[in-house]
Give the backbone structure.
Amino acid sequence: MLLKLKYGVVALVLGVLLCGCSIYSKEGDIPVAENTSKVKLGVSVALTDGAAFLGMQSRGTLAEAVGDGEKMQTLRIIIVRPDGTVEHNRYYDFHQVPTTYFATAQFEVVGGETKKVYLFANENTKFDSGRKVANYDFAAIKVGEQFPTNDITGQNNETSLIEVNDALTQMALPLFMSECHSVDVPEKQDKNVELIIVRAAVKFTFRIINKSNEPLALNQLTISKLARYEYLLPNGVVYATEPSEEDGTTITYIKSYKVPMIGNNEHYNFKATFADKTVPANGKVELDPIYLLESNYNDDSSTEGRNYKISLTVGDETYENGYFNNLTALPRNTHVVVDVTLNDKLTGLDCEVRVYPYGEYWLYPEFGQ
């Protein structure tokens, strides 16, 4: 029986849905001295297209949010002055109509300075154990006081990291999202900005296609070399731009980013087990999405790209593919799609990798021959 894996990396989403419902918000305001100029800052927030992270232009159906768990259900906007003073901390709750785009929050701010604008969505999400995904009380950040930079952007402390602590745990829904932006505010002129926010997760979709004349039982799926820790905010991101080979337009993609290097990012093998999961004869099954932390692990420092493997247990046999040599990293807010085709002669594993530079990434590890 031949088992062929084909997968592509695509964006999780950039949807544009205007929120036309009433929403609930809370905020404190910082007093402003009478002789200080004040202006209005309008902030809109959109989920970014992960395709930009991998230098891809495609935004097909696989880039759309699947269910409310991949959308913003709450949003917190915190504005910080150059001296670290919190100027605004505003919270929005739109559980009734989750969205991928929010417009427009208006803030009265001190003009003539560069602000830090922090964005946090779905901050109250908890793992099944009851532990919060983002282990910080953002509501406790007081207007007029110093922003707790180290607690939120620190390298190794408990409040600045997201952690999964066993092989079966994945990111809970709705997905926690975050980003931080520097915004130049004019001294005597109002300003509107549209800022992006990204999901703090990598999404995996597995589609199992059975071309045999017999039903097949799936027992376990394993993904290797994944990270146990992730920063609350995107960290050390370096972007690059270059012209597309297809039409000459400029594309932007992520060149590098940082992950917490606790024990070489404390990589582990994620396991998904299935009870009574059967792919019918000449049929197909799409597994529920799996959400994991971003990672950037290299199994062999002397060989670029020896990072990730996938194995599948069919019946009593487990089959593993070779390294995906062109999947060198898994940044947050990307979507890995795996098409698994089951045929005859399930006896071994070979891996053929093909890369389409500005479309999807297709990989063909073969079980059997």
User: Anything to note?
Assistant: The two ends are 9 Å apart (CA to CA). Helices lie at 149-153. The longest helix spans residues 149-153. The CA atoms of residues 14 and 48 lie 5 Å apart.
